[in-house]
Specification:
This protein is α/β, with parallel strands linked by helices. It is built from six helices and ten strands, in the order E-H-E-H-E-H-E-E-H-E-H-E-H-E-E-E. A ten-stranded mixed beta sheet has the order 1-9-10-8-2-7-3-4-5-6, with helices on both faces.
Length: 221
């Protein structure tokens, strides 16, 4: 374990470099009392400057961004400098990601998706990955992205996708910011879904103005 103080004085690109490739990390943010969102229902209402530094660093390092379509819709995702792969059982493309430059937005969905043909029309058939019959096969998704040369995969949630990635043994790392706030209420946690019990090993911990920024490596089951 390494405990380091003050991310603004450190080379974050070196600290967050994956130890090997292929590598799939999930980046999340949480309050001290475990909420993944604030009163707006978005993670953007609880993150801060320290979290933004790490968020930007992880995107800089990544070959591709994977995100649940529902999270992309709620958080107001637009096209990014790095290709975005939406994960959805329904195949519905969020409004702000429609009309992006071809190849900047992909869809990973399943054969039974309600909006499969619409996704193909919006994104181009070659940018829609059908991985499974009734749900997205996440191990196949990882293998497909790696085969395309995207070996450093960054997932930005949401809670259902994080839960499924660790439950299926697909994620290598959880990168999580814990902001010094309490919000109470009934907000979601960073994982949601049937119970899992996945051990993590702390790799790195940073602190800035009470915000904790950690890297946890997923341990073999």
């Amino acid at each position: 374990m390494r405990v380091l103080i003050g991310p603004d004085t450190l080379d974050l690109t070196q600290l967050y470099e994956p130890p090997t490739t292929p590598w799939l990390r999930v980046n999340m943010v949480s309050t001290v009392d475990g909420s993944a969102t604030g009163e707006s229902g978005r993670s953007g209402s609880i993150n801060n400057a320290a979290d933004k530094q790490v968020f930007d660093t992880l995107r800089f390092l990544a070959d591709v961004i994977v995100v649940g379509a529902g999270t992309a819709r709620t958080e107001g995702y637009g096209p990014a400098g790095t290709p975005i792969v939406l994960v959805s059982r329904h195949g519905e493309v969020p409004e702000r990601l429609r009309g992006a430059e071809p190849g900047r937005v992909w869809m990973a969905t399943c054969a039974q998706a309600d909006h499969l043909e619409e996704a193909r029309e919006l994104l181009g058939e070659e940018h829609v990955l059908v991985l499974g019959s009734h749900r997205v096969d996440l191990a196949e998704l990882r293998a497909t992205l790696v085969a395309r040369g995207w070996a450093h995969i960054l997932c930005e949630g949401g809670p259902h996708l994080l839960r499924d990635l660790v439950a299926q043994g697909v994620a290598d790392e959880l990168t999580c910011t814990i902001v010094p706030r309490l919000v109470a209420g009934t907000h979601p946690r960073i994982t949601d879904g049937p119970p899992v019990d996945v051990p993590l090993a702390l790799h790195t911990l940073l602190e800035q103005d009470g915000t904790l920024l950690g890297r946890w490596l997923v341990q073999p089951g």
